User: Fold these one by one.
Assistant:
Number 1:
Amino acid sequence: MSFATKLVQLDTWLQQQRPAIAAVLNPPAPESEIASIEETMDHRLPQKLRQLYLWHNGESPEQKNHLFTSASWPESQEYGPSEWAKNARWLPITEAWRERNSVMDAVNIGDDPMTSNWQPSCLPIARTNGAVVGVELRNGEVFLYEFQQFYTDPWGQHLASGCEAWLAPLLSKLG
């Protein structure tokens, strides 16, 4: 089954099992918006990240129920979020781009030594206080960056080889 088909099934599952989370998901990102960001950053989104944003363009900022929260994931899982994610919000694509630029500005002016190892080809797709989940655009790998770890671990914690693998615990609920 394709990743896009799994996302359609996930929509149905969320509406039935987690309606509060389904309610905060934005409509799909316009293809033109994604293309514009890809052109600006000189990187094409990895296919499955692109599909994720064509499925839904992140989440509404004012809500407390989020797709990437611990409550959405099985108790024992390998790739999903843990304690840090209780308030993690999936960023709409333009907000993810602004977040990336904000981090890069801090890197470029040396304003924040904790961001000095941030990779320019990493796009933060989810954010909470003190951490972001970023996708490396060159290979699609998913990382968790906890800001206090920038000193010792410039690449952050590797979460998964790609978006589908990272979402696997949630997608496994589909049966």
Note: The helical segments are 3-17, 19-24, 31-41, 47-55, 93-109, 163-171.
Number 2:
Amino acid sequence: MSSIKPTREPTKTQAQGQTQLLYLIGPSGAGKDSLINWLKQQPQAIADAIYFAPRYISRPTDNGIEQHIYLDADGFGQQRHQFAMYWQANGYHYGIHQEVLVRLQQGQSVVINGSRAELTQAQRVFGERLKVVLLSVCDTTLAQRLQQRGRETSQQITARLTRHRRYQDVNADAIIDNNHSLEDAGKQLLKYIEGVIAKDTEPQHQQNAPLFTSSDIP
């Protein structure tokens, strides 16, 4: 991996640009990876405008929906300086490579599968470029999806549901309802992204975030 010094605070010129860091958050099992994969299959114009940043995780890949890059705990210890963001959750190490900073500086918007608990870190790293997008699901839907993917034990599912309730009060720029079909949620997110990358940077963290639902889509 390349050695790039992270930019902690964007310059005034950078903050006035159109490129945005779309920080997609929501509980594990809410469908963030599925939604990102759906976006990747959309028209080429959207795919060209966005860099979908991979996550580095100390959990081996399982050839499932999540397409992360595996890096063991020792690797994280040796290469911490290569990450724009780093955190630990659910017994694993997570990282976002500094490539995202290069992409932003080159004029390309970025989508990250982020962590609600690390929102403060994201705000510090990306500043006014940051747009927080919350993927909203109810407890019943989340429990069903966690059971279906078969990765967690019943105790781990209970722990994830408890964590979900603890982080529900998030100040987001947009809220995507993902209690229904993947296509419904995908169209909601696509509508928001198209609006964001089509205009100059807006003030960070609007007081009332727009709530997108399937009824907003023609």
Note: DSSP finds nine helices and ten strands in the chain.
Number 3:
Amino acid sequence: MESYARLCGEVAVLLRGMKHLTARSIEATGVPGELAGMHVLGRIEQLGPVRLTDLSQGLGLDPSSVSRQVTALERRGWVAREKDPSDLRAQHLVLTQSGRQVVTALRQERAAALERLTPDWTAEQIDDLTARLARLNHDLELNADRQDRPPHDHTEARLENA
């Protein structure tokens, strides 16, 4: 259990560091936006054409909060709404060309900043950490519905087999 507590602590530090790194990248690129909006913009890019409800779920945020961010991104011309071809009553959120350019600029600046901050890391170390984080992210996403369940207790099974 102690190993998991340490892991949680390190992930929390990583999240704070990446938040700070992203905020600095926004400043460095001169993109006129805020961190929350850039997070929403990046998630739209990852999900592709997406309904607001699915975007909110993908972000783990309340739809009204996400809606405010999307409205601000629309005003900047970075996000547009398109009819959902499978349900003409619904709309998909999509990045505009300028929205894609913003995402690309931020991604490139953030990667360059991370490279500057880790000058003595080898390519193998970067690849190893990337693979381990990908595995952790995969397991977290795959098992998200199990989060509230207690770990399996093998005591009962042992007693039944005794």
Note: The first strand starts at residue 79 and ends at 84.
